[in-house]
Amino acid sequence: MPEYHLGRLLDHVHLRVADLEASKRFYAAVLEALGGELVMEGEGYFAADELFVSDDGEPTARLHLAFQTSGREAVHRFHEAALAAGGRDNGAPGERPYHPGYYAAYALDPDGNNVEAVFHGPTRRSAPSVVVEPAGS
Fold it and tell me: Is 50 exposed, middle or buried (0-12, 13-18, 19+ CB in 10 A)?
């Protein structure tokens, strides 16, 4: 039986965007639909967990970013929220042929990046997330 270790490969993803406010509306809406939120914000940037978005350079182009979800309902919430917040449809919620149980939806963010919400089917997690605290805090 395969075993997956999520959250170990990437430390963070940095997107550069043309319109910070439009991107903030889009990402705040899709994150909220998935049970997340923006956790940091400042002049020219915002962040949510491993996602960092700023307006300090040439916009990121043609990136594919996929958010894990807790179920098919979350995939639907993501798609609806993305379209309502200025995203463009790039694939309605539905099963995909990648592996049995792969259920996803896609939307293009304000800069045209392909953002996905995916549910891989029923799984057992060892923990809901990994908590990391800097030493000495």
Answer: exposed
HSE at residue 49, side-chain half, CA atoms within 13 A, is: 15
Can you tell me whether residue 113 is helix, strand or coil?
Answer: coil
Task: Using a pLDDT cut of 70, give the percent of the chain over it.
Answer: 92
Q: What is the mean pLDDT of each run of 10 residues along the chain (137 residues)?
A: 62 94 98 94 94 97 94 97 98 95 97 97 76 72
> Is 84 within 8 Å of 32 (Cβ atoms)?
no
Q: How many Å apart are CA 57 and CA 35, to the nearest integer?
A: 29
CA atoms within 13 A on the CB side of 21: 0
